[in-house]
Amino acid sequence: MKKLRPKPSIDELCYPFIYEESTLCDYEIITDQLTRLVGWVIDELRELRLEYPNSKELKKLEEELNWLLPLCYHLNGSIRGKLAISEEDHLQLLNYYRAMKKEVDNLIHGFVLPGGRSPVGVLNQCSSLSKKAIRLMVIIHNKENKEVANILPKFANLLCNYFFTATILINKVTGFVETPFVSKSY
């Protein structure tokens, strides 16, 4: 059977690499989705801040996410193109994460069922997409023999933890109490 690769006009092509068989295209689509969701989180957070105008935590989170938004697109292109995530970017995110973690450390006690006011659900999606991006990096590097700089999975792992911790922070501010999850499997 002939490979699927229509010759569309530019108006009928959503992404130049969409017909590629490499997992790299899947990685780029996942990180594109991640970036779009972070933009959505920022918009939802602005709405939430109207209800909690005195919350320094939500204001700081919005500032951090605005800083982080272009870095998600840099994560997207840093395998196929020029590496655009630096150690400085990673350290800044690590500092943001550790400061936020201190704010909620007494609230994190193992696994919880996802829930909370918007944008918590979108942040949970961002966390999951970060994990998917890491898994695709592993395949791209280990199975497809395409170099993936160590900073990229390191940064994406930190992103995953940052987004999760942001859900706890928002739930703290809004008074939403997470339901602990006790696994029957482990």
Report on this structure:
The chain has 186 residues and is an all-alpha fold. The chain has one domain (23-180): Hypothetical Protein Ta1238, Chain: A (Up-down Bundle), CATH 1.20.1200.10. Helices cover 62% and strands 2% of the residues. The chain has helices at residues 23-51, 56-77, 87-104, 120-142, 151-174, and strands spanning 112-113, 179-180. It has a two-stranded antiparallel sheet with strand order 1-2. Helix 1 runs antiparallel to helix 4 (120-142). The termini are far apart. 29% of the residues are buried.
How would you summarize the topology of this molecule?
Elements: H1 23-51, H2 56-77, H3 87-104, E1 112-113, H4 120-142, H5 151-174, E2 179-180
Antiparallel strand pairs: 1-2
Helix pairs in contact: 1-2, 1-4, 2-5, 3-5, 4-5
Low-confidence stretches: none
Distance between the termini: 45 Å
- Number of helical elements: 5
Q: What is the makeup of the main sheet?
A: 2 strands, antiparallel
For the record, the CATH architecture stands as: Up-down Bundle
3D shape:
globular
Structural class: mainly alpha
Total strand segments: 2
Binned strand content: under 5%
Highest-level CATH class: Mainly Alpha
Please sum up the structure shown.
The protein is mainly α and 186 residues long. Helices cover 62% and strands 2% of the residues.
Keyword list:
186 residues; two-stranded antiparallel sheet; mainly alpha; single chain; 2 strands; Hypothetical Protein Ta1238, Chain: A; 62% helix
